[in-house]
Design brief:
Blueprint: H1 2-18, E1 23-30, E2 41-46, E3 59-63, E4 68-69, E5 72-76, E6 81-85, E7 91-97, E8 100-106, E9 111-114, E10 123-130, E11 137-143, E12 148-150, E13 156-161, E14 165-172, E15 182-189, E16 193-198
Parallel strand pairs: 1-16, 3-6, 5-11
Antiparallel strand pairs: 1-13, 2-12, 2-14, 3-4, 6-9, 7-8, 7-10, 10-11, 14-15
GO biological process, one term: RNA processing
Keywords: Signal
InterPro entries: CarboxyPept-like_regulatory (IPR008969), Cupredoxin (IPR008972), RNase_III_dom (IPR000999)
């Protein structure tokens, strides 16, 4: 009986070591020159175990002030995104991104809902524009993990990971100069962890600037 008790105790300890209940991954990111990084998307994908179930989200990308708001959005796969026109004139939203090509017109106060696809890479980057206001641009990242967030203005972010194990950590910004606009690293997560990450570039974010030109044909578009 004593051996059985020890055996069960060892199994319990092993099970406990494999599961970290809401331990925190904290990431601090700096530019190559040491300056603070503008907000980027951070997400974590487990490599040696299954990710938790999908988190239901309400995602909206508005067209407001002749711009996409927000400029950069992240969402989990199998959720839908709502495009809403808050301007008092028409927009013609489109994307030519792989596996996520679309085109639709939105009059003032109209909305359009869609569910984006992901690629074999496990995520999808969708760049959007407007056929009427050609300076407008917005970006949507679709990931296949519930572990994602946006860094703050100090280049810091936290993720609550439910289980110990190996994770691929990814940074994304549509204006990164790297391949596919991402940087990745693999970590062994055993509990509360702090990562200091220095980028191999200095990110300079250039947001689209609205034209002051008026379009007389918009009312009939």
């Amino acid at each position: 009986m004593f051996k059985n008790i020890i055996h069960l105790s060892l199994l319990s300890s092993l099970a406990f070591s494999l599961h970290v209940h809401a331990a925190e991954l904290s990431v601090s990111i700096r530019n190559q020159d040491g300056t603070t990084v503008d907000p980027v998307i951070l997400f974590a994908e487990p490599l040696d175990h299954k990710a938790p179930d999908r988190v239901v989200q309400k995602v909206e990308i508005a067209q407001e002030g002749k711009a996409f708001a927000p400029f950069m959005t992240v969402m989990q796969h199998e959720n839908s995104v709502m495009f809403t026109n808050r301007d008092d004139f028409t927009h013609h939203i489109y994307s030519i991104s792989d596996d996520n090509r679309f085109s639709f017109k939105l009059k003032s106060d109209e909305s359009h809902e869609m569910t984006p696809n992901i690629t074999d890479s496990g995520h999808a980057q969708i760049s959007m524009g407007c056929n009427i206001h050609d300076w407008m641009s917005g970006h949507l990242l679709v990931v296949n993990t519930p572990y994602f967030t946006r860094t703050n203005t100090d280049g810091q972010a936290q993720l609550q990971l439910e289980q110990a194990g190996q994770y691929k950590i990814t940074l994304w910004h549509p204006q990164f100069r790297s391949d596919n606009q991402i940087y990745t690293r693999t970590i062994e997560f055993k509990g509360d962890t702090i990562i200091e990450w220095s980028l191999p570039e200095t990110l300079v974010v250039r947001l689209p600037e609205a034209s002051t030109e008026e379009f007389d044909f918009i009312e009939q578009y």
